[in-house]
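Supplementary material to the annual report.
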Amino acid sequence: MGSPAAREMLEVKELRIHFPTEDGLVRAVDGLSFSVDRGQTLGIVGESGSGKSVTSLGILGLHQGTRAQVSGEIWLDGENVVRAPAGRVRQLRGSKVAMIFQDPLSSLHPYYTVGNQIIEAYRIHNHVSKKAARAHAIEMLDRVGIPQAATRVDDYPHQFSGGMRQRAMIAMALSCDPELLIADEPTTALDVTVQAQILDLISDLQDEFGSAVIIITHDLGVVAELADDVLVMYAGKAVEYGSADEVFQHPGHPYTWGLLASMPRLDRDRQERLDPIAGTPPSLIQLPAGCAFHPRCAYAALNGGRSEREVPALRETAPRHLTACHLPLWERRRIRAESVTPPADDPGLVPGEGAR
Amino acid sequence: MITFIVRRLIVTVFLLLVVSMITFAIFFLVPRLAGQTSFELASQYVGRNPSPAAVRAVEQKLGFDQPLVVQYGRFVKGIVVGAHYDAGPDRTYCPPPCFGYSFRNQQPVWPMLMSNVPVTASLAFGAAVLWLAGGISIGVLSALRRGTVFDRGAMGVALAGVSLPIFFTGLIALQLFSYKWPVFPDLHYVPFTENPIAWARNLVLPWTTLAFLYAALYARLTRAGMLETMNEDYIRTARAKGVPERTVIVKHGLRAALTPIVTIFGLDIGLLLGGAVLTEFTFSLHGLGLFTILAIQNSDLPEILGVVMLTAFFVVIANLIVDILYAVVDPRVRY
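Predicted assembly:
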């Protein structure tokens, strides 16, 4: 690598992942850049189809050998995953970077015991005896909080509860002590009561193992709890990127506002309706011209059609805070100031509403 | 697991009993319902142009004049412990399992059946090895190279294999490799215990012909199963762990895709053991299939009855083995 600071565990530069289909080219990820430092947590947020999962599979090099066209750079601890030979990428998978998936039941093989699946993961990257690997598997299960790990190690995934399965997935992912852990919606398929436990577990283990974590979610609550940095994605691009404090306190992109407004909050009146973002995510084959978000943006009309013509660049609006929006910063600050905790009887306030 | 097997065994015994009832009904109840008297029924079990006295003797000897329940009892008893046929001085003992005496040569049916089993078993198991190896590997390759020339070609051949009857492919194979280029001339069954090499050499053509039909079917099944399982989340997990692709395909993908194939294989092999009728006929192999054809041509009722019972027995046993295998193969099956 050009040797950027050794602190950086992962640096993604201008990543593009495109899938040729019969209907046209799907631009799942289109010019994405971000980085994660050691021991830090990055939260990637966005709706379904915004390219979050495709990005994470790209970091694991799982698009190799498929029809996907990957360009750009993914520097994983000094190695470019995009260019590295398949054999090398396979060695990195599981040992340097590991992943936890959304649905632990379908992500675990139904025909093998939980223990055997952990043992397999461990023995691929470590030349140890089966017995030693088994002891390690039991230890890992114990560490992720599975009671009676020594007997549960021989259970099949269907004998575990949902939360326990996700714990087992985490044990498997951490069995080779990866330096980067990617958690793709790790709590979406789980019971609400279990979600917090799993998040705490990830956070505790991160402290213990010192690994960097990327947590992919559409739940801003999860990000607020765990992340140091936040990357908001829309239609394959970053629309807002910055430290979690900055993004939550001064969200600078209308899409982020929408995400925040559509999140239930306990400190608000229960009668107040949640505010969903109007419209649906765009087709990734025929993206709207200009800013991909403009058809759904209540404020796009405020800058004389510029959002419809020009793709906004990701610009720094404050230290460690970037947004991709054509609206002048002062205008966005004004809108934000007016809309935060609006009076309950004021339905208007959205200047763009009349124009749309 | 033990209780599961015991439970399945009990069900199997019950199933065999039902099979015996149905078979008995077909041979002894249906004719009566159709209006046949026991005298007429007995006349089918005597030689040509019998005297009424001879028919009466047989009627008594085989017990057709007795109530159906008693007859069924005798039928089952004969299978389990053997039967004594006695009418006056003419007394014979038929050792178990007794299906009666063949009309053709006055021999008990069971030993005749048994002498045919090795031929059919050799044919069925040999072909099974070929079609499993061929069908599954072609299916896997097709699934992995979906849409390529190989996939389309293989699936085209598979379609032909499923559609072409044995007496067509078999005759072509015979014409080409036994007559035109006599690679396998003068085909006849040689027992394995006598000369294993001759046994195999003489069975190569029937094996491949039969296996071609089944391999085609299994290739299509495997392909469909693999296409499904290779898209499963746990395959992605395996790859994310860094598992080498070959292991992903075999240990994670094929392992899951094979489960339904185990079921179908059990049924296929059970049915085949009862006689690969077309293959045996085409290649003149004297197994259960050919035996069945001859029995039907001769209207040899005891022989037909024996074959039906034996085939049903094989299918039921194959089912039992599949059930047990299933519990071993898929841990989610509760036993």
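Residues 73 and 82 of chain A are 6 Å apart (CA to CA).
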